[in-house]
Specification:
Blueprint (H helix, E strand, L loop, with lengths): L2 H17 L3 H8 L3 H15 L1 H34 L2
Helix pairs in contact: 1-3, 1-4, 2-3, 3-4
């Protein structure tokens, strides 16, 4: 694996852990696809730094479990704003 990919994988994982970030937020921050973020954290990072990979995975799993709630809240906010117009 090329060194810049390893470095990116570590940077991405650190960002996710520090900011409690979602895959989408991370992809936007690093200007890569969501697939790249996922692959960096779930596959590449396991070879480089397994403990960091485990930490990042924990955050991503939590975000995945909560995403349906966030989506519902966003829809609720949208319709509340429409009612007040």
């Amino acid at each position: 694996m090329k060194s810049y990919i390893e470095e990116r994988a570590v940077d991405i994982a650190n960002y996710i852990v520090e900011k409690n970030a979602t895959v989408r937020q991370t992809a936007k921050e690093f200007r890569v696809s969501k697939s790249t973020v996922h692959k960096d954290v779930t596959e590449r990072l396991l070879q480089i730094n397994p403990s960091l990979a485990k930490q990042a995975r924990k955050v991503l799993d939590l975000n995945k479990a909560e995403r349906h709630i966030r989506g519902g809240m966003a829809t609720r906010e949208k319709y509340l704003k429409l009612e007040h117009k």
